[in-house]
Amino acid sequence: MAHHTHHPGSSCWDHNVDERIGLIADGLSHNDDIRKKLPGLRTLLNEYLSPDVTVESTDFHKRLLRVFRESEHDFAYQQCLDRLTSDERDRVEKFVADDKSLEDVSDGFDMCVSLGVRDHLQHLTGVPCLQVSSSGVQALGFPPTTNGSNGANGIHLNGHSPTQVDVAGLSGSSTLDWLKHQDGLFHAFAHKLKDMLLDHEDEHNVIVYKDAPFQNWGLVVDYTPQYTCIPNSVAGVQRIVKYARDHDMSVRCAGFRHSWAPIFGRQGQITISLLSLAEATKIPNFTALSKVLPEWLLHKNELQTLEVVSGTPRVKGNALVRIGASTTNEQLRRWCVKNNKYSYPLNVIMVEMTIGGTNAPICHGAGRRHQTLSDLVRKVEYVDCNGKLQVVDDPRLLRAAAGCFGLMGVITHLTLEFEPMSYALMKPEKIPVLRAIPPPDDMRPDEIPPALRLADWTPEQRAADIAKFEEVATNGYYTEWFWFPYSDLCWVNCWDTTSDPSGTEDYPSNIQTFFMFISQFTMNVLQNATVLNELIKTLHLDEAAVTLISRAAMFALPAWDEPVKTYLPDALHFQRGIQNVRVLDVEVEIPLQPSKADPTKPDYGVVRRAWWDAILSCYEHSNKGCPQRMPLEMRIMGGSDIVMAPQKGNTLGTCAIEVLTLEAARDMWVPYAEEVIGKWLSYRDKEGKRINTRPHWAKQWHEIKVDGRPWVEKMKEEDYRVEKEEFKGLLAEIGKKHGWTLKDLKKRFSNDFFDAFYFDNI
């Protein structure tokens, strides 16, 4: 293995977190100018370091935010505040001002739709919009203002309205006349959909937006579909697809758009939005949307079905649950907890995602006994190329259909196999980095940053720590590790479950949820505070801002002496609102290798190497702008039977490992990510062959190069060379039964990336 070197001049290498905070405080003491621009920061840091003063986590965040609120030279606090609803702003201000207790200020708080979705809704309210049903076409969008702004109705979701117009004065008929005059094609499209809905009830509606800009959550994919359609029923989806067929257009779906990959739609075509606007509008300042969104769109609909259905699960005692593709993880979580009978055994952490969105790119959870979310699918209901509703429930064909990236058609419902409700025994810990996941055996002691070394760590303790890590990784129900850049501690979130419901608590509580919101608000303030850049230059400490970010983040994460018992879905979604902090993210799935002593059991040498290679890479760049500003995260999980899953064939399990950064580090991220990925892809098995490590489909890979060429070329020519042919073969077999071909899929449901990856010879 290659040995790592560090760069002189970086305080990270030699100083732990508290020592680096001391350097920041000392630097502020000797520079009046920067100290005045950050009022109260030196006092906060000195008190935090003092053995005679206890600064609690909530107080640290409160006083840190107060620094930026009171700064006369930085406006990040106010800018972040302006993006919130009036209720959120009021709570944040009371928290920072210490006007009320945390209990009082969090009373009645409910985590709202993310900032990114608010921006998306803002875009939608600024373009022409029609509601289509069997009874007619009604205008909901409005012509541009006289100043040429495209924010036609002037509604801003934060309550501010710089281009406000009298929307009440614009009648539906006059606006419809304007749209007909300005864009006859749009008008004709809407009436075509209306005619297609004539054989259905009035409740089958479609909202249609014209030329609404699309941007994914990661801000790496953007295009403008000609039509963005929001249906509330299967019939609505069918009519959209039939229109696309008749007019030779393509259709792709999107929900919360939480991805970094080019898996969305095409320029000038049709995007179907499965975004849950019923959830998005349940907050105070969103009442303005009622002027542009019809009543039916603000309630659950046919595409948000949640019901136990009859059938034979593969495991006795389990249940089959039919779920609409628009259903959010939050709706699913609440349904499971309320009924307290069945639960999904795994899921992604984020609640603001649709079931269709987590299924399409084959997302996963944690725990070596668990495969991917797509492996739970027992039936797929979808609208095909011809607008027909079809079903796939053959287990062999589901290996393609249950993880098909939307290429087979518009999935309307999925039936998943749930387990009886169980209860997580959560006991998160903060453990010294060296002990949480000990370095690989061939890593020299001098390669470990002095800041992370433990003087009293004996060989016996090291062996015990390795054994503990391997035991938990092998047998734990849920296994996850976090390391924030330059932190001395790891946050370890590994737990098991019980079937005993006694003593179950709701987690997170209202107070905990609100503090999660505060910690995310703090993160956004820190990453947008320009005065921190001045601090970095003045004190010659590149990692100063990252040190504060990591300290605040670790401060916000819990660590308990005794386990807390909570519902399994609550534990799986232990962090709420993480989507409010925009990040960049690369993740790979590394196959676990067989142990030399017992080939039926995994060896964790490569896992430990991957973990520490990432940590050392972070330290090596600490005086180069600190491109990694968010955590290194790792989960141990199972393999997969889904053909295109990156975990497929990993019979002993998978190491899902990722590095993240904040949006503010975008300009320096890709070269750094390529360096880390290059190390992760370099590992070899006992025969000297490269391990078949592949990226998570929903994360960043499209703009990444490996071995001097685009990563996507390696994926196509090496990583999935066999699998993509099997995938196409199974899809063709489904198509033969349902009356379509792969050529039809390319026309109707593909995009530029999938054309090149799957359909280049069709």
TrEMBL record:
The keyword Oxidoreductase applies. GO terms for cellular component: membrane; mitochondrion. Keywords: Oxidoreductase. Coiled coil: none annotated. It comes from Triangularia verruculosa. GO terms for molecular function: D-arabinono-1,4-lactone oxidase activity; FAD binding. This is FAD-binding PCMH-type domain-containing protein. InterPro entries: ALO_C (IPR007173), FAD-bd_PCMH (IPR016166), FAD-bd_PCMH-like_sf (IPR036318), FAD-bd_PCMH_sub1 (IPR016167), FAD-bd_PCMH_sub2 (IPR016169), FAD_lactone_oxidase-like (IPR010031). The lineage of its organism: Eukaryota, Fungi, Dikarya, Ascomycota, Pezizomycotina. Residues 220-421 form the FAD-binding PCMH-type domain.
